Prior knowledge:
By secondary structure, this protein is of the alpha+beta class. Helices cover 50% and strands 9% of the residues. The chain has helices at 17-23, 114-128, 134-146, 153-162, 172-187, 191-208, 226-234, 238-250, 255-266, 275-290, 295-308, 321-326, 350-359, 364-380, 400-419, 424-438, 456-466, 475-494, 501-513, 521-533; strands spanning 11-16, 25-30, 33-40, 43-48, 62-63, 69-72, 77-80, 86-88, 95-96, 98-101, 104-108. The strands form three sheets. It has a four-stranded antiparallel sheet, covered by helices on one side. A hairpin with a 5-residue loop joins strand 5 (62-63) and strand 6 (69-72). The chain is elongated, with a radius of gyration of 29 Å. The N and C termini lie far apart (74 Å).
Amino acid sequence: MALPREAASTLVHVAPLDVLQEKGRHLFKAGGKQIAVFAGEAGIFACNNRCPHEGYPLMEGSLTQAGCVLTCNWHNWKFDLASGETLVGGDRLRRYPVEVIDGEVWVDIADPPADEVAAAALDALRDSFRRHEYDRMAREISRLQKAGADPLEALRAAFAWTAERLEFGATHAQAGAPDWLAIRDDHAASDADRLVPLVEVVGHLAWDSLREPAYPFAEGMLPYDPGQLIAAIEAEDEARAVRLVRGALREGRGHRELEEPLAEAALAHYNDFGHSLIYVLKTGELIDRLGPASAEPLLLGLVRSLVYATREDLIPEFRAYVPALAAWDVEGKEPVAAPITAGDLLGLPVAKVLERVRRSSADRRALYDALIGAASWQFLHFDMRLMNTVDKPVSHNVTWLDFTHAITFGNAVRILCGRYPRLWPQGLLQIACFVGRNAGFVDKAVDEERWQVSDGRAFLDKALKGLLDHDQQEYIVSIHLVKLLTAVKTEVTAAPDAPWVPTLLAAVNRFLNEPLRRKHPLRTVRQAMDFVAAEG
């Protein structure tokens, strides 16, 4: 492999050729690098001494007789030194050009151009998705950053790669990404801290799309019309909705221009356990962070998720929602002013919570405080026995994570309905649905005093910073922590003197310090047997 003479300043002398051939291998340090040089029948090769897997020394590896396939004996990764291909393993090995000049072996330790390093890092990052190689993702994003590229390019690329591999559209990975970036901005104290949120977002996307085929979006575009977009989502016509969004972007419309109709579509039903409205809010925040070039994959994923969202107001438990919304005070009608507090809503089933809220529709702020206060009390009083019961029907498969949704949904309601006030009735009544559905899953005996927080700001900042080294194996758990803590901090900051603040902080404190059970083998098996027995 010939070396350019103009790069002579980066040439490093290794050893006389005959000495190297006799020894077979040689290790030297130069420019902060440990470089291993191997001599075999196939030629002379130089590479990084550290295995790209976990950094063990390749000088201790095994070389085939032909001298071109190197095996790291710690985990059996194999590298073709001639081609640079990784034969077994999931990362590439850095090689260095070698030349023999007048019987002496020289190695060129020059680094490739930064743009090549960055491009190679993105290519390798995408390859890491095949097996969800979390540690490799961290290395590739670190390489991208070291090359001087914007590390957010990893997120932009990952969302583009995975958009069509998410069968039901946007996931918690998309909704939680802007909150991870906020934690990065506000709580990262080191370069390692700043890398964690990026790896978490990319890793979550890789997990959600793992081994998924492509689910292509419809081609083409249509002239944008907000009413048609809402109608297409309501009709579950993904192709038309996608074409309308694509048309809006081609017309130069920013994502904020689409936010109101998307919020209206998200609130057209008591949708998807609150995910839909949260996703609308967070997708906008994410596009603000990643830039307009990311708008198309993010918005198309959002639209797909809205099309596939469950419409829970169509099931018996929530059928009172539509009549309550229809009876909401309309313009020109004298509202019924009925003072309301959180206590007025506790213990009521869905229909009665909806009716009580509707009767107090004159004061939106008081209603919001009462609803969030009730949701916070329920969150604090979650009945832990639900996580251990094995003899209840599927309808009782309620988890503590479910109780966080009333809070994160409430946060989205306050922000988006604040921007588009005509949507307040839908937002408030849907928070009421949460309060009604959670009424039967609380433990009134919880010791509230035990979980009280004296300094809310310090408590939340510590919890948020702690997420940079969380120990949750499942992305779905860690992202709920991210979304919950971010929403709580946002709400407490917006209304520090609200009556529900102490209760909500106590609820979060208990949630962070009590066990969270995620797997229920015996309950699952019993419910499966009951289901099969009832099939006839």
